[in-house]
């Protein structure tokens, strides 16, 4: 039985799922499982027998424990549950925004955006998301920012120091070159490093917060922001920024190649 079918087999039974989850920390005796799992004694014995028959648990001198396959199944179920909880926090946002713009490895880690909130504009306060970004960026001693579109308030708020980095979209640079000014101010920041690459999302991350903006399904840029202050979310955002930074080229190099 493949791992995928084993996951389905376990998840179609709450008793099997609870047993596998209970064994994640380590081996447990039958009596411990009977106390930990909310099911009848016969249902637990039956589930243990079936899980053992499918190679997911095994009986040892220390009690029941997960096999190698069982451990992989348990880890996958844990990640699925985290993602389900993540989506349930704001299902409307994830339904209407394009997660496909994120690299697949980061979509698989999306549940790491723990404790997030979605900041939206309202009819009486349409600029609330913009203020959220500006206030956080202005108050940060340094931060990393990914900008897919030009926004003067964001530009003005960006810290200018050697510990900050900015990635801007090729589209932003090209539009500036096509404007009446026909040039890009390469001296806008004295210390902040600026790189250029195609940018499909907006991102900002500092020591104690992160902000993510995904396009809507039709490609338009919304104002709603995903904001989190948890360590897991900040680590996710830092890793995502690092990937984009490595793919980007210095602004001067991009302009020289035009």
Short key terms for the protein model shown above:
258 residues; alpha+beta; Arc Repressor Mutant, subunit A; Endonuclease, Chain A; 2 domains; eight-stranded mixed sheet; two-stranded antiparallel sheet; elongated
Folded structure, characterized:
By secondary structure, the protein is of the alpha+beta class. It folds into two domains: 3-77, Orthogonal Bundle (Arc Repressor Mutant, subunit A), CATH 1.10.10; 90-256, Endonuclease Chain A (Endonuclease, Chain A, 2-Layer Sandwich). It is built from twelve helices and ten strands. Helix 1 (3-11) packs across helix 5. The protein starts with a helix and ends with a helix. The model has no long low-confidence stretch (mean pLDDT 92).
CATH architecture of the largest domain: 2-Layer Sandwich
Compute the number of structural domains.
2
**What portion of the residues fall into strands of 2 or more residues?**
15-25%
Q: Count all strands and give the number.
A: 10
Radius of gyration: 24 Å
Q: What helical percentage do the residues reach?
A: 40-55%
Shape: elongated
The CATH class assignment of the largest domain is Alpha Beta
Q: Can you say what the CATH homologous superfamily of the largest domain is?
A: Endonuclease Chain A
Question: Mind describing the biggest β-sheet?
Answer: 8 strands, mixed
Please, what is the average pLDDT?
A: 92
CATH fold title of the largest domain = Endonuclease, Chain A
Distance between the termini: 55 Å
